[in-house]
């Protein structure tokens, strides 16, 4: 067996398929783009959907990749089993309507067995096939698989519901009897069974059917190949590792954790080994995910990040690590992945700061969780329960990150159990909620064969001209049929041999305009333009006059609208760079929308954007506009573009030729959109709003040119109106006048509070003299007029200092607001009475609720008319005490 590092294994796989004519696709961001069905990229094929469903035709129908992926459906098993991971890399080769079984199977066999490549012993390989797939079975035998190593399995059919489906073959590697964890006669002791001996390393899906809504399976017009090989599993074979965790992908993290855990060492105690593995796995996942723009939060992807961090911290505590430590694993992960993912190490300082901040915040949460666990156990004993209910256990797990086994262990020490079924029910409900949230979304579309067939050449010329004369209509589509003419009053899709209309792309909306006949008559209105699968600009038009293919037309773009879009698009480039300059290089574009009247720019950022930073960003963008920077565009290859310093987006796939947009020496980016020639054309830039729109994603909305002037003019008019009302002659004097007003208001408020306190004290003199004895306890009650909660607390302090009674109940109310306060003397509390119990008994009278300490509690409500009833309720409560 060869000795290969994880980096060498990954590269060997990619090199093999590159030799077979495949384009090596870079690993996409873990955050899906335009795919509501996925929370994370969870496989190699997840990034290929647009190719498989026919919405886009790839430049090369043969592709290969090593795609980072996240799956959290079995998070509870991470660390306990040899091969469960949250983050993993899926090696894959893909064919979109090109080669099929006759090529895919022999190539797989060659990669695995050839001495030039993996060089595995063919006698250690076992393959499963779908029983009805006799073609695959025969090709495997011809490739060299022994007949007794070929196993038919009924479940070897890949089907996710409506959409592409087909039979598949799973490839297993026999690790030998020394890895076997089941007996020889165990029914699971076979390739594909639940055992550690036969390790599944590769799955090849032969996607050849369309699963229709009616439940039938129709042949796909283009058959596809989709394969997946787990890098971690394959590396464990090359490195003769018992589990995935004893490989160079995880061991450095485990070793780094050992150094922080004092006397704990991996491989000594089974329970400790689980903790080490969980930390290593979760450290990898959060590091890469945060590097791709995900941030801790209470929803969606952010919740997954937060949950992983908390689980790892709890495991760290079990290893005796009390302080923040997980952030120290970030550069270790960066070093491991540097050969293929250099951006992780480059961002390690930023990623570590995010993790450390979350760790420090969770320390308090963890303490609260431990307190809750103690309370749950105490309540169980107090109520003579021998079991913690599932809801309580799930709250500890879900909110505080306590694994069920940790709760069960603590419960066992206390002599009670945990409702495992109740916990499982709560867990399933959470999974159902997550699944239902995405159930209505489209998974993978069905190929639109008509557009796939159309390969007529069509050239976009809108970078240089917005009117084209003599554009030949080469394709017309109506009612999903290719036709030779389209009639007035219909909506049709058109392709021309050349067009000045920009198709929606990269956040920039499509151009609108008109199609004119050769003599200048209106023939159609262009309402939308999208890219067809083979790259042509597909115009959606409202037909006014009969259009016929092969005739020539005049195409004219709405130039005013187009110009406004260009200004806003160039402004997004300036904004992108300004954010990097002001907030840091970690900011990444997370989406954009460029409309004629405004622009929207989403970006990844940890924390709030201050008003000061926002003002600096706006000023920096305007500075570039006023500097009249030249905007130049060059076409080159992606490698040269990156060497020029151009910023590339994770969400974009770049072809062999790219456009690089350079704005002076300030900004340089890959971009296929349209732009102004000089920044002075933008005129002015104004930020309208800034807000958070998701976990770690901020959004800026802004306007330029005339819209920016209008926004500033509205602000000026509003300020002038305020100045007039404050009787200020000039707007520049407004701040001073406002400061004066605020000081006056503050003085009046203090005077008012002083008067309220004085009045309350005068009323209290009468109230404190009104003492009654109920059930051997002295009670003072009273309703104070024109007071607030602050005055009630001050009166309670006076009452306590003077020891005027055992119990005090005061109330105040005005308009639709009421307040109550209850105080108990220390002796009364020692006798078993609690202010919190009394406040809960009387607060319903004011339609409110409250709580507090045993010697002091307060409540608020919306029914001042009920204050008298609350005083009477206090007397009744005290009378009921035994």
UniProtKB/TrEMBL annotation:
It is found in: Cytoplasm. GO terms for biological process: alanyl-tRNA aminoacylation. Residues 4-714 form the Alanyl-transfer RNA synthetases family profile domain. It is an enzyme of class 6 (ligase). It comes from the Bacteria. Its cofactor is Zn(2+). GO terms for molecular function: alanine-tRNA ligase activity; aminoacyl-tRNA deacylase activity; ATP binding; catalytic activity, acting on a protein; transferase activity; tRNA binding; zinc ion binding. Keywords: Aminoacyl-tRNA synthetase, ATP-binding, Coiled coil, Cytoplasm, Ligase, Metal-binding, Nucleotide-binding, Protein biosynthesis, RNA-binding, tRNA-binding, Zinc. Its main location: cytoplasm. It catalyses: tRNA(Ala) + L-alanine + ATP = L-alanyl-tRNA(Ala) + AMP + diphosphate. Zn(2+) binds at residues 569, 573, 671, 675. Consists of three domains; the N-terminal catalytic domain, the editing domain and the C-terminal C-Ala domain. The editing domain removes incorrectly charged amino acids, while the C-Ala domain, along with tRNA(Ala), serves as a bridge to cooperatively bring together the editing and aminoacylation centers thus stimulating deacylation of misacylated tRNAs. Belongs to the class-II aminoacyl-tRNA synthetase family. HAMAP family: Ala_tRNA_synth_B. This is Alanine--tRNA ligase. It comes from Lentilactobacillus senioris DSM 24302 = JCM 17472. The lineage of its organism: Bacteria, Bacillati, Bacillota, Bacilli, Lactobacillales.
